[in-house]
Amino acid sequence: MNTHISLLGCGLMGAPMARRLLAAGYPLTVWNRTRFKAEALAEAGARVADTPAEAVARADIVITMLEHGGVVQTVLFDGPDAAVHGLRAGTLVIDMSSILPEQAQAHATRLAEADATALDAPVSGGTLGAEAGTLAIMAGGDEAAFARARPVLEAMGRPVHVGPAGSGQLAKLTNQMIVGITIGAVAEALLLAERGGADPAKVREALRGGFADSRILEVHGQRMVEGDFAKRGSMAIQLKDLNNALHAGAQLGFEGPITRLLATLYQQGVDHGLAELDQSALFKELQARQHTGEA
Amino acid sequence: MNTHISLLGCGLMGAPMARRLLAAGYPLTVWNRTRFKAEALAEAGARVADTPAEAVARADIVITMLEHGGVVQTVLFDGPDAAVHGLRAGTLVIDMSSILPEQAQAHATRLAEADATALDAPVSGGTLGAEAGTLAIMAGGDEAAFARARPVLEAMGRPVHVGPAGSGQLAKLTNQMIVGITIGAVAEALLLAERGGADPAKVREALRGGFADSRILEVHGQRMVEGDFAKRGSMAIQLKDLNNALHAGAQLGFEGPITRLLATLYQQGVDHGLAELDQSALFKELQARQHTGEA
User: Fold this and answer.
1) Considering only residues 209 to 248 of chain B, which have any Cβ-Cβ distance to chain A shorter than 8 Å?
2) 3-state DSSP assignment of residue A287
3) Is the pLDDT of residue B209 over 70?
4) What ipTM did this prediction achieve?
5) Where is the active site (chains A, B) (predicted)?
6) What CATH homologous superfamily does B5-163 map to?
7) Whole-Å CA distances, B177 to B101, B237, B245, B262
8) Considering the domain B170-292 in this protein, what is its CATH number?
9) What is the DSSP secondary structure assignment for residue B68, as one 8-state letter?
10) Partner of B26 at 20 to 30 A CA spacing, among A81, A239, B8, B168?
């Protein structure tokens, strides 16, 4: 267990992941653009670095957990402080951020040129999954890279190797497709129940345990029933995810009529001012149609 | 536990439900149109009746588990052997078949005229849920009727009272909406994964435990990955369920664009010869579009 790990990005997801790695006994160096978030981990045993390049200098494995593909590119490659300038030969770089598959493939190519190995390994499960170490982890890259990453990933969740470089990001897009569509399914179901005079909260409860059961019915269905659309995810991000899936799909000759319809519906919700509400607010967008009869 | 129960309909679902009731210690009389299916339950302790009217003569609670609303109407009301002619005053009739909400409401009215009480209580969970006694049970009717039914229903699964007469059937339609749409979500996700070079079986496995997880991903996702579309449910029944939801919705001023799209997609699958395959064969219908580019 003397694998040295460097974690770049200590935000809502990165911080609890860092705590899991420390709890598992890994020596850990952390870096964050706003330094105080990294410093909060010092107490738990992390070393805090000033730059990405410094953070990765002693690392066997580098983990990035950043906001989007542009930030990952900047932190890894752009400018004199970028991680690539500090990497030792043979370092494994695991990007657990959610970025486009084509970006992940480009990063893998550039890392190979720097004598490093890449694995894309985005997650699903949110901050609760990160804290509990139960994240679903979708990994793309070489079999050998996955084998090397596996024990480290298992400190944070349940990793599965789904295919070559970029496949982890592709799997994450499919995750977001299912999430976005299932939210629509639950919303329409609860709206029909409500219009027919049934109690939507009771219907949700009744459906748990049958074939309609899902994490979305459990978590987002509860938000719909309570009318609690405070932002955890957001309509804007759900829309971006669906558009990214359609974008990746278009390059592959993929035709997804359901994904396309849902992108349209989330777009309409965003247009109607719901962008910064939780994505379960698709319920509100669909509810508004019940009165106008808009098709 | 001396509540006498009569069960009308001993098919794929009714038979294991009868066994759960017998195991719970209820005196049980059974009837089935094709008598040998009822006789199979005699060994487990059931009395076998010749007609619905005879079956219900000593019952405190009558349970119907039949193929559709027309059959329920026939067994309860049509002809001299119909159950209504044997019912004692005050009998509780629980229809656990899946029928239209408006049919359930009409049956409740006719049963009230015969001094009986009605509860509509359709289920989700399939034959496995019936055997294990873990069915999701959605109950519509009076609070008092539900309270009286609850211990009996608990021998078969997890009952929830969702609203007035017809609400149980409405909840079942919402269950089928979520099932039908989520199958579409999982199908599109696995198809995109496949086209992008990821392993769909591994992607399904990776997504378990994240926010995309559902009974459908577990059960029907597995069928898609294995290409095993042998009939359990069927495309034809899924289409009928979605059309019934849209029919019930139309009467309530409900607008469900996602349900509408899925009805169109299952219809196209049926038109393309997939009617008698499992409803997870929507995967095949969507897969075929990837090659033709059909919109």
Assistant:
1) 209-217, 219, 245, 248
2) helix
3) yes
4) 0.94
5) 172
6) NAD(P)-binding Rossmann-like Domain (3.40.50.720)
7) 15, 12, 7, 9
8) 1.10.1040.10
9) S
10) B168
